Amino acid sequence: MSQPSRCVVIFSRVNGLPVEVRPILIHKGETRSPAYLALNPLGKVPLLEDTAAAASSSSSGPGPAGPAGGSSCLRLPESAAIMGYLADRFPGQVAEHWYPRADKVHRARVEAALHWYQGNIRAGAAKLSFHKVVAKRLGVPSDERVAADALKTLQLALAALQDVWLGGGARRFMTGDRPCAADLLACCELEQLRMLRAAEHGLDMEVILAPYPQVLAWQQRVRDATAPHYAAAHRVLLAAVAKAPPAGGAGGGGGAAQSKL
Amino acid sequence: MSQPSRCVVIFSRVNGLPVEVRPILIHKGETRSPAYLALNPLGKVPLLEDTAAAASSSSSGPGPAGPAGGSSCLRLPESAAIMGYLADRFPGQVAEHWYPRADKVHRARVEAALHWYQGNIRAGAAKLSFHKVVAKRLGVPSDERVAADALKTLQLALAALQDVWLGGGARRFMTGDRPCAADLLACCELEQLRMLRAAEHGLDMEVILAPYPQVLAWQQRVRDATAPHYAAAHRVLLAAVAKAPPAGGAGGGGGAAQSKL
């Protein structure tokens, strides 16, 4: 159900990486369990464990230090950093366009796109989803005015995605002709907006994205470029969307009609 | 006045990079001028122009494409990506600990810290500053409830910075014994909270950071590690803080007392 986790899973599958996926169920409190917090004290997903990471690193954290002498098990949070690490860790397998190694200008552009995603697409979409859907499910306070501010942030981000990053349609993906890590991360984030239909009639991914046809076209290109792994990773989300009753009741289209990729 | 711009300036100065600084005055609308938008259609600072970037990159954007045949002038937004690019561009000058190149595990940890900063420290602090200070100055709508939500985000981030990234005080900087790009970026972001005193009595960087003594100690370590460039880059902010009348009027300490680094 986690959008950045799906992204890392798809990235790993598309590039054929030997990554084993272990689901952590947020809604069952598993990100807050003592066992998980011992691995990732930030209490967030995804987390990459590399049990055979280079033991020579002079860095540490976050989280508890390894045994004296330095552990060779890396525990890395943050989806974007995980993808960059996997690209460096499996240089023979991760295609350059996903996260460039040799072309430093391209790498910088991918990283700019990733950071821009964090402060714009993610800042808007995740905050909107939290205050419209997640908070209510977790029984924590939510605020409609914060949700409205997040929607505004998201709409500005979608306009910039369409007009600037995609060059109004002149650029197929955010940094060139082939998809990169930022395309995938942004795309997975936007799919999560499907859950909004359970919170408010007339608010849905389709409704929010409709004014941005180049974003819709790009979204389909990302799905196509990562098939069949994209659909596989979104199966749980789509099932949840299909199960959730649409808010308001006046909506004609059922879950099934809305949950196709 | 821009916190990520200050960060890039300090990063460049500390590492002795041949970076020429050109101020863009946000409050005079310069980030929205046609001339600036032609360089960076995102309308944000900082922007790095590298007029001698490798011309062989297969990537493009954001922004207008160069002349046919490919331009060798790179225009790169996003402070974190700029620092990563500068580290790759000037490998003989940027110290490894600031943005590692050889140690891929350390590089991944620095990038995790940078992305975490975006979604937590930045998401809280910049949103708070915007709704408390910036929006009022620009004459655009602000919302106290959005500011309250941002303050909560920031407080959770400061707790995680202290307890997880700094290991409750066991770790000197976010990824080890020496400062990295994320330490500097987060530190510059937090300084901006000084402007809050003009918006609301009792709300200030000192007040917000007081419950997190390990964050305060780390902040001082970052300043010390980057002296005298840190203070030089913050001169404009501190002058603005000193000039802005404290809100409420009941506050005893004047601007001068509060604007020491």
UniProtKB/TrEMBL annotation, chains A, B:
What is an example of a Pfam family matching this protein?
GST_N_2
Q: Which PROSITE patterns match?
A: GST_CTER (PS50405), GST_NTER (PS50404)
What InterPro entries would the database entry show?
A: Glutathione-S-Trfase_C-like (IPR010987), Glutathione-S-Trfase_C_sf (IPR036282), Glutathione_S-Trfase (IPR040079), Glutathione_S-Trfase_N (IPR004045), GSTT1/2/3 (IPR043377), Thioredoxin-like_sf (IPR036249)
Q: Which Gene3D superfamilies match?
A: 1.20.1050.10, Glutaredoxin
Domain of life (superkingdom): Eukaryota
| Stretches assigned to the GST C-terminal domain | 103-247
- All copies of domain GST N-terminal, residue ranges: 1-94
Instruction: Give the protein's recorded name.
Output: Glutathione transferase
